[in-house]
Fold this protein.
Amino acid sequence: MSLAPDFQDWSREVAGRVEAALERLLPSPRVAPGRLHDAMRYSTLGGGKRVRAMLVFAAGEVSGADPERLDVAASAVEMIHAYSLIHDDLPCMDDDVLRRGKPTCHVEFDEATALLAGDALQSLAFQLLAEHRLAAAAEGQLRMIQLFAAACGSRGMAGGQAIDLDSTGKGLTLPELERMHILKTGALIRASVLLGGHCGGLAAPELEHLDRYAKNVGLAFQVVDDILDEEGSAATLGKTAGKDRAAGKTTYTTLMELADARRFARELLDRATGALDAFGDRAGRLREIAGFIVHRER
């Protein structure tokens, strides 16, 4: 009996699998409008940690899901993530020029093309969820589309970004900051985990355990992001470092000392892994991802 791959090998395997699925599912630049399709592929392929895709697959291990279903769900999540980054980087938003170690989409192409690429990626993600069989019953698939839509909308990522923009230079309390990041960062992380659970047909009580895990992991991801933004460099992060503080944005590292922020991240890690106790060894990959999120260096 062969041993399961270690986390590093497994994460590379998932990244490669998702990259191949995205290559297949994204429109070819040889098909009109070629420049738009090229921008979509530029922003989605060949970069990022694929943490959200890993969460889909790890939750799929818990639910016993068909890997081909997980390919589609993970690709949809990565398209939404890429769309959000394209729009976040626009001059009317965070106005950034570097993402994943290369020029942002609007710098490489132009603002109009970047805007349309984000729009098209969002539409394609929902098309994938609608046209592929991902759940045993239609009701389950509709629930997947519903939770995915909520994660993207005004009570999810878009709402979190709106709060972020509105709060620049004003300051937020810790509860307000947590609320913003539950929407801006945590919503898609939560959707990633739950989509993996739904692909295998987990029952409601089991999905509630996954939900608790996802909420804590999503918040931990942002806490660590703020720590790295304070300590890292553009060369290691692949994006502009220290930009939030320079822009007058409230972060976990402006509200608490670095040591306290690290301690908070570890507390969230404990809460996340504790939510998985009911699953035993099936949740091993989810535990490893939580550790990776909290202990990563970029």
